[in-house]
Amino acid sequence: MPEPSDADRRKAAQIAAPFDKARLVDALERGWEITFRCQYCGSSKTWRRDVMLGRARKLLNLTMPQIQAKVSCPRCPGRMPALSFSGLMTPADPDRARWALIETLIDAGLNPTDYGYGWPGRR
Fold this sequence. Notes:
The structure is a single chain. By secondary structure, this protein is α+β, with helices and mostly antiparallel strands. The protein is elongated, with a radius of gyration of 16 Å. The protein has a three-stranded antiparallel beta sheet with strand order 2-1-3. It has helices spanning 6-13, 24-30, 49-53, 64-70, 94-107, and strands at residues 33-37, 44-47, 82-86. The protein has a domain at 16-91.
């Protein structure tokens, strides 16, 4: 099988319309798991809640395309991994999910207002 061209890799790395404007904090709110698959060596890694609140916490306010541009493969120098998402598009009870996220951010030592949640000036 021939090696994919750069155009094929860009096409495979395109993020679908509902996810291209989503921030990482939105993924955390909805309980998504994000899988990054390297287009060069095929290795993959999955970000769950623990990773989003741990080593990826600096990226919480970034959109998926911004994160995709920053992430590289841990095994090879490959960039622009293909992203896939699993989880609910919209939670059954959005208000409950929003408050759960606010509590999660506070428990992690983060200020929810920095991410557009809660009310400014209120703690």
